[in-house]
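Notebook, p. 212. Picked up where the previous page left off. The plan for this session was modest: take the two constructs that came back from the sequencing core last week, fold each one, and keep the raw output in the notebook itself so nobody has to go hunting through shared drives later. Recording the first one now, exactly as returned: residue sequence, then the structure token string.
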Amino acid sequence: MTRPIGRSRPALPAAAVAVSLLLLVSGCGGRKEVRPTPAAPVLPAGPRVAVAPMDNKSNDLSASDIIRDAFVEGASRRGYSVVPVAESDRRLRETLGISYGGQLPSATPAEVCGALGVEGVFYGDVQEFSKTTTGIYNSVTVSAAFRLYDKDGILRWQGNDRQVRQDLPRGGQNLGAEIVVHALGNLLLNPLTPYGRRVGENIARKLPAGALNDAPR
């Protein structure tokens, strides 16, 4: 007995098969995660100020840079728009011939503000930046001060800080061993940078956000 021959189904075009596979694969992969665009950093919107080179009364040439950099960072966190020190130093050299803090008395604070195009300028002094070391005694002392003048040359704020650390042997039966430890420690002089940064940061914390808006003191 002969079976009837049925009609065969037409083959799907190759393009249709490829599209179906792509849709299937994309569906199995799930939705692609869309990450939000990170927000742009918020820049200080406070008064535009500059921090002049410090008058360094210590014997350490790096003292003023260490303390000033820390103070600039702190003032920015307090909302002040601080001109980058490289830019303000360049302007002072080119306009007023001032290259270091000891030359600032040659111009008034109002003239400095005008040359820098700012609403206020900070003057700073490195008062102490030293370390005394002996066989049994170590002492670190760092102190500095800053003051803020407005564009009219009026003193609006001033602050200071002092950090002191002293290491002495406790004495007793281990006094000899402690002296040896201190002597060996003196061979590796601890840098003063952490103390200098702490002084600059501490003074900046005392800076009120609206110092240029307050009445002159």
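Okay, moving on. Second construct, recorded in the same format:
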Amino acid sequence: MNTPFWNRIAIVMGFFLLFAGIMHFVNPQFFNDIVPPWLPPSESFWTYISGVAEIVIALMLFRPSTRRRGAYLAVALFVAVYPANLYMTWDWRDRAASEQFVSYARLPFQFLFIWAAVQVARANPDTSRPAVPGDVVAR
């Protein structure tokens, strides 16, 4: 596995998540509108909590020491927000074709993001645990 390549992907993914996370606070209404309304407690709660998660995960992806965990958390995040993408596609069914295209295009890209995050995690070994019994892990 080409670790330098996947580390560059981790940085790009980190910037993407950082930008997206910040946008949750800059323009929360867009994100509130795509949160399925039946999720308790409120759309705003999910907008802000996912924004915080994206920022934290981005910072983890930037640091080599937390990149592996950050990548696995990115996988969990991408899976967790998929219902919002599905809801957006359903909710935008009566909009202009160009907007519908955007909502449909997001669906397969989520799987690409999940795959890339798994590859980043696999390319970064877990150095926080001993490799064999008796190893000493420097902290």
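Notes on construct two before I forget. The chain has a mean pLDDT of 91.
Flagging for discussion at group meeting.
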